[in-house]
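Forwarding the complex inputs:
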Amino acid sequence: IDYTGTEPSSPCNKCLNVSWDSTPPCTCTINFTLEHSFESNVFMYYGLSNFYQNHRRYVKSRDDSQLNGDNSSLLNPSKECEPYRTNEDKPIAPCGAIANSMFNDTLALYRIDNDTRTPITLIKKGIAWWTDKNVKFRNPTGDGNNLTALFQGTTKPVNWPKPVYMLDSEPDNNGFINEDFIVWMRTAALPTFRKLYRLIERKDNLQPTLQAGKYSLDIAYNYPVHSFDGRKRMILSTISWMGGKNPFLGIAYITVGSICFFLGVVLLIIHHKYGNRNTSADIPN
Amino acid sequence: RSMNLFLIVYLCILISKALINTVLKYVWQSEPFRDEPWYNQKTEPERKRNLFLRALTDFLAFMVLFNYIIPVSMYVTVEMQKFLGSYFLTWDEEMFDEDTGEGPLVNTSDLNEELGQIEYVFTDKTGTLTENNMEFVECCIEGHVYVPHVICNGQILHDCTGIDMIDSSPGGSGKEREELFFRALCLCHTVQVKDDDSVDGLKKNQLSRRSCIYISSSPDEVALVEGIQRLGYTYLRLKDNFMEILNRENNIEKFELLEVLSFDSVRRRMSVIVKSSTGDIFLFCKGADSSIFPRVKEGKIDQIRSRVERNAVEGLRTLCVAYKKLTAEEYSNAQKLLQNAKLALQDREKKLAEVYEKIERDFILLGATAVEDRLQEKAADTIEALQKAGIKVWVLTGDKMETAAATCYACKLFRRNTQILELTTKKIEEQSLHDVLFDLSKTVLRHNGSLTRDTFSGLSTDMQDYGLIIDGAALSLIMKPRQDGSSGNYRELFLEICRNCSAVLCCRMAPLQKAQIVKLIKLSKEHPITLAIGDGANDVSMILEAHVGIGIIGKEGRQAARNSDYAIPKFKHLKKMLLVHGHFYYVRISELVQYFFYKNVCFIFPQFLYQFFCGFSQQTLYDTAYLTLYNISFTSLPILLYGLMEQHVSADTLKREPSLYRDVAKNALLRWRAFIYWTFLGVFDAVVFFFGAYFLFDNTIVTSNGQMFGNWTFGTLVFTVLVFTVTLKLALDTHYWTWINHFMIWGSLVFYIIFSLLWGGIIWPFLNYQRMYYVFMQMLSSGPAWLGIILLITVSLLPDVLKKVLCRQLWPTATERIQNASRHCREHISEFTPLACLKSPRYRSSDCSNSPARRSNSHSKKMMFTHWRGVNYSVLPSVFGYSNKHCRSSAGHHYSGTGLETSV
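Prediction (whole assembly, two chains):
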């Protein structure tokens, strides 16, 4: 579902030129219909287009040791983070362009059943790699669990409305180990990409996770993409052992298989036709 | 040499790539939101930099990014391959000579591959083609022939052979001459005597005259002295300037040695002046017939000359002996002249030569000797093989034309049907040089025309080949630069003739002339690779001049061996050296070079393509560790080993079939066509890797838990496919598998996997980025990634396999036919299925099984997954066994969970 809102008819058109810290956030709602029901767990993604997360200046603009909870780099981030290293002589935590431009739209999904909106529970844990969450990303160490104290002496990234220790209310999903943050920090390979936003778990075996029917998507539109001609999407998908729908592999295997088969036949013919000549090949003296 | 050319091409590609990217970058960035979107701003100093400087920086950054396309590590590998490869030559047991107990020596490792490219072989005759093991055969004194076959207690057997023998008991004057002749031979030399036992050497010598050993720089002299010893005159020693001779009556005669006019190759003779005990002064001269006969004023010239010529035709080395009696005045004059010349400070050589010229004349001819020099074993065989291999063999010798020609016939350089063209002094005297050359070229060119017709009609070209004989004097006439500037014509004409002759014999050559000839050929239009082989000091100049110089570790000292690039004990070893080792070296190095370019194109081209997707920002596709280690450890060892071990045809076959050498002649495997083929293969593979991975990642989820992969996973996927493809490509090219090959190829793949696991498995404390952390493991945990890897490897190897099979079946080269034949032989013996000879069974067998799968599949589109599996099952077992299990275990799952995905 594209909710960028470039078309004037789109409900999100009014939010097209939002800035970062507009308060209150511009909100809009998009209604859509699911043709089929989703049987198993559903994965909710946000997708961005024309967003060069793989730009070199962007990719290197982070400090992994700061994110790993190293106290000295917390206060003295790496030079790579420029120009998002310090703000008003205070070190930025987390520093760098990647962190600074973190996706901050809030998406909420509702099921519309006879004009009543029932919210669908979105799970925000388990969206990042386990190793990233538990090993690679760590909050700075110190006495006590008070993240506010631990991040003392640092400032929030320029574009963020809140500092890093206020990303989430739960302590095991806050600070650097916030999973939304971790997901964002894994830079995408291509300019059009999607990132996992939430999980929708199947509650019982009797009914599908998402029934066919009408839904609405509430968006707190904060993230400006219009300036670089970008698009924003929301994607719902189920996943097999093979991952999501991937027509490429199938087509490729069919093609290669048929080419191989064709070649096999051709070569067999050639072999039969010219094979005799080979067996009696006169060895030049 | 072509390697450097290729490098230049790659440098151009590199620069153009960087330029393209820089230009595109600025075109692309012309819209400001692309240059500097809000999420990715530049630092202050970056913004202030002016445009030109930025463009330059970008260009250089692209250069750095793509610089891996220039295979720097290739040079290291090539050097190592050459260096280690040269040991293979030294270790070859077949090249070891039991007689001398010496193996081949390699003085340089730079020229290994040139051994496979030789077009001209220049060989010395004496000591190279022949053994240089002289044996005195006969001597002829005024028409009487003495043959010392049978020696009984020092008695000569006065043999009479043929018509030359006039009467068996020579008259008084004849007797006198005979004795003089023997004395002359005994005295006129520079042989030194080495006693077995220095204490009572003299006695011993008197008792057993064969116990002393003669040492000389020239084996001819030794042979002569030994021969004379058998005829009754023994040279004992040189003591206080007195030469002692034991004559037939066991009396010691003493001669005072007054002067030695030593041998040199220009005069081709030497003389001694001795004073006999009776006070007579004699000048004995020994030398080549051509230098003696003009200086003789009396003696039975005609008889001796006919004898000499007969001997020469039989391939014997002949020397003439003459003497002159000097009066005391004459001697003192001569001595004075000599003294002056020797003391001259300037132009001493020239003056000495003049003096020699004055002294050495008006001889009385005594007789001639004949010394046999046997051909080396298998010399004929070797020459024949070389000629079959398309190598032109030239014999350059200082010997007489007749002698040399006889040797050439004996060693099959000239065959019976070879038409001999002569370009000798004699002929030039008759006509002018101009006419002779034109006549010859006309003959040769006419022949050449018919030859091309012959080859077209498929007839054997051996039917009419031409041999050219040229002598030193004629050559110097040709080479002599003339004032009117028309000398160039002669030279070219001469070259033209030579090129069309299968064999050329140059006789009566001075050492410098040998080098001159080599140079002439070397600098001719086609720039052929030349090889000179010789054993003596007189060959050194030619050995140094030629591209490859080979010295024979022979009797005439080690001077040649020391100056050469390679030294071998016998001429016959040349065959194995060129046909087997040279061929291997060449095939190996060419494959090595091409493979290196290929693998670097494969490596860097995805990088280039990636720039189009990352905003031309010089973002690397691969992690830095992969970038660094790709050439160093992931892919270097298998190719190095290939470069050392590959034997595409067995060594025996190569030796048996010299014509295989033609397959690699003229740099066949490093031509532009091959180079372009490899480059395109590399580009194709790179495109397959990149776009395969691109489509695999494009807007889909490839994990089973819904989590996404980042750019590093993308790069790692491409890199994994790359490493596997490149290594397996080498495995496809390898014909000769040893356990080391297996170890290296599979070992480096395993090493890659282990390294990646390690590299991603640990948070490395000394790195300031952790971007590879768990990337590889995460990738391996995803099913589509596995399928994608396998698919991409198969696809990228497919064209190469296809090309090989097609070429092999439809247009086989001789080499491939031999390979097939030998494979067939093996199959007949071991009764294998004949199917194995086709390279494609793995594809055929796999495809037969998946064809029904496809047919059933066309009915139900939703069963797409089944189809994949069907294909997978058939392709996988042949390519990778291990992924099979993975597929089967998961087969049950995916019926239930086909991808239902919406994007409304």
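The CA atoms of residues 31 and 216 of chain A lie 4 Å apart.
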